[in-house]
Amino acid sequence: MAILGRDTKKCPRCEAKCLVNQLRCPECGLIFSRVEEATNAAAVERLKNKEKESVLYVKKVPKDLKKWKLVLFTVLLGLVGGGYFYVHRWQRGLWYILGFVLWVLCVALNSILVGVWNGALIEILAVCVGIYGAAWIFDVVWVCTNKFKIPVSLPREEVQ
Ligand SMILES: [Zn+2]
Fold first, then answer.
1. 40 C-alpha to center of ligand 1: Å?
2. To bridge 82 with a disulfide, which of 37, 73, 136, 144 should be the other Cys (CB 3.0-4.6 Å)?
């Protein structure tokens, strides 16, 4: 079974290449089996307590979240940051709300904005809205291809 040990995987914390049968990341020391126990709820608690170093961003949906819900939130409510709010990445979610507000303003006040700075303002805003729309499309692709990053952490009692 020597060949088995040659398959590699990526460390979910530092992305270093590790052998599949390795229990611990040689780069950052993460014990892989503990990632399975990590939850998004624990990460929320850690972030509230400003313990950023205990929070890990993983691409695998943790056991307390559902992949189908993440897909649904990202596709249907992604333009207001739905997927980000579902995994509790509020700060990122707020940028989407800002993008959405900007988009609505551009449409609603188009006739006024077109006249500002010889139309330069509406062009700048259009680029911003374009980036925002593209970011949402990337989110959908990332969620569907399991590349969307989700904060997780170990429940507190596991650490002590
Ligand atoms: Zn690592």
1. 19
2. 73
